[in-house]
Amino acid sequence: MKFYLPFMLLLIAANSLSAQTNNNNSEQQTVQDTIKEKSKSDNELNEVVISATRQPESLDQVPSSVTLISKKQLQQQLSISTNLSDILGASVPGLGFSTNRTSNLGQTLRGRRVLVMIDGIPQSTPLRDGAKDIRSLDPAALDRVEVIKGATAIYGNGADGGLINYITKKADQIKTFSGTTETGSAFSLIKPKETAGFFVSQLFSGKVNKFDYVVSGRYEETGLYRDAKGRILSPEYGMNDLKNWNAFAKLGYDFNADNRLEIMYNYYKSTQVTDYIAQAGVYGNFDRPTIGVKGQRPGEPEGTPYNHNASLTYTSKNIIGRTDLSAILYFQDYLTLINYSDFFENNGQPATQSKKLGFRLNMNSPYEMSPLINGNVTYGLDILSDITDTHLTDGRLVIPEMKMSNLAPYFQIKNMFGPDLVLKTGLRLENVHISVPDYTTIAIRNYVTSTYVGGGIAVSGGNLNFNTLMFNAGLRYTKWNAFKPFASFSQSFSVADLGLVLRAAKENTVSNTSIKAVVANNYEVGFSGAVSDLSYEGAVFYSTSKLGASYVYIDGNPQISRSPEKIYGFEFGAKYKFHPKFDLGANYSYTEGKRQTATGDVYLGGDRINPPKLTAFAVYRPIENWSIFTQMINTSGRDRFKPVNGSYTYGTGPIKAFTAFNLSTSYIFRKKTTLRLGVENLFNKDYFSVISQWQVNNMSYVKENGTRMTVSLSHSF
User: Fold this and answer.
1) Which of 27, 89, 295, 315 is most exposed by smallest CB count within 10 Å?
2) CB environment 118-150: b (16+ within 10 A), e (fewer)
3) Are the CB atoms for 94 and 114 separated by under 8 Å?
């Protein structure tokens, strides 16, 4: 196996949202106390969350559903798979099943699109959804993940189903110089030939006087992936033969106890270099999946050639009276390539590029009306410039350079009535302006008639303006530790995949196209609680929108359905410390959705609605330094559609039930060296991925991984 040393990119960086300004000294102490408590227990009721309100606060005071993935949980999952789609799919109730691909198409959150961020920097491309945002950095750079479920007005465009905020690692505040070195290998246990991959990473961290820093780099090669029968998985959007780079750095400087400056940078690259091409399977034939065979792939290597993220954050406590301030300037430059195909006339390979420049001003002012009524007001301004286009690598333009500017003032009020009742309300005003230049459409393939349609239309550009006021309100009662109920209402705003509308434009003027914003209303009632060694949570949700954003195929051409939608479902989870050495836990989530048509309501397709998901885990610690984690992932399937003329169409394929198991174990030597072993698909279950079943496409009919093992060794100093 050829060995590569990672190229360590040492750039100045800082923690953005994960170390934002604290409300006051008491909240700062709350954060510190919570960290200490978290190290002793996995009870999340007292955990601190930032993404829900842009201010650190205890999770049990947030009137909405939140899932936190801690550093410990991330490491358990990393020992099984380094694919963030796998990690989140197995860990977050309400989030769709892993696609086992570089694309997260169909991995929705409660049936709607999710906004993905790195320390608050948007990774999603709502102007043209490339479905690559979940895999936007290497998970080894993460300290934790915060998932806010349901429509949210907190962060604006694209958060219809909620948001995923990747919180990057923080500097070691105790040591001047510390670090961790890790290396490992992953390979198939079913016909391991050509499947062996490897990874190597290095992290340095510490604090010197008023400076603190953390710098890390990681390089990985994945090797080939095989199914349960040893067949090579399709390379199209595949995890096969990937070369992944990640370089991360942050630097912080404390001017004094109240003022801090931080700068952060993360570089991510993931491209596929393989000697295999896809051989189409036969949809519906269990023994004829799409596989990889030897061949020369046309075009440039698929994947993400680069994703640059940088932020500069200034925080100040008590800047005016007791008011705290946080100001963040951020930048993202992102490019992704999909496979070369005959989808466009004369063939071609599409590339989507997005550049974002943004500024966030956030202020927080506490108030006290009486000993029993107090709270704080969070208010500020978001400014964002987003330039997105899709072009073919041969230079032809598919979607013109869409320039979006967004100016959004907002405020949130958190009011405490006594020590136990929390009321939160807020408003956000979206002011979105999008300019589109003149362009000419390219013909796309109609796979029903095998002809090319829609090309050569000269479209006059123009300006689009959207102004929407969004409201949210939530109430939570925290007196009883055994039962802390909440109820909430929240709205979200998004311009639903404008690029797809422009790509298929039939009108000669942008202003004549069916471009409208989607406002989703989310209603939720839920609870959390703990009794002795048992903790639990649950929620029921209902989401509506007068305009939809579902992909439909009409006469073989992809379009967006604008019909009204409603989505509903529930989630429930529990954890139980059965014994000091033995923990058990499980989560169940169910989502269903329909859209209104002239002939009645019809179910939303699999690209929006995932089948019911049941996950369960057990953690056993035979001795202090040895931990064994087992995990089950199950679905009962989903079958909502009937074939038309004997065939299913995109999004309507039935999903069959399956159950798979994973294993992760770690052993610590002398408190500094850790040996980890993970096994994906422990019992070599032979089954198709969820996305391959609902897509109803011979070329996308791909099975899940067979049994695959990861072994790693890390040393800290």
Assistant:
1) 295
2) bbbbbbbbbbbbbbbbbbbbbbbbbbbbbbbbb
3) no
pLDDT at 147: 96
Question: What sign does the CA torsion over 90, 95, 100, 101 have?
Answer: negative
Give CA angle at 449 (446, 452), nearest 5°: 45
CA 449 to chain CA centroid, nearest Å: 36
pLDDT tens column, 110-126 = 999 999 999 999 999 88
- DSSP result, 456-507: S-EEB-EEEEEEEEEEEEEEEE-SBTTBEEEEEEEEEEEETTHHHHHHT--S
Rounded Cα distance, 346 and 298, in Å: 14
Residue 612: φ, ψ to 5°: -55, 145
Q: Look at residue 310 and tell me whether its pLDDT is greater than 80.
A: yes
Q: What angle do CA 93, 659, 82 make, to 5 degrees?
A: 60
Alpha carbon distances (Å) from 664 to 141, 196, 676: 20, 19, 7
- Identify the three-state secondary structure at position 562: coil
Model pLDDT for residues 215-231, shown as the tens digit of each residue: 999 999 999 999 999 99
Tally the residues of the chain. Answer: 717
Strands 178-188 and 162-168: what pairing? unpaired
pLDDT digits (tens, 9 = 90+) for 475-521: 999 999 999 999 999 999 988 788 888 888 877 778 766 677 889 99
The pTM score is 0.91
Q: Is the dihedral of CA 396, 344, 508, 551 positive or negative?
A: negative
Quote the distance between the C-alpha of residue 88 and its chain's center.
7
Residue 168 CA to residue 145 CA, distance in Å, equals 9
Beta bridge partner(s), residue 712: 184, 676
**Which runs of E-coded beta strand occur in 532-564?**
534-545, 550-554, 557-561
Q: CA–CA separation, 642 vs 653, rounded Å?
A: 9
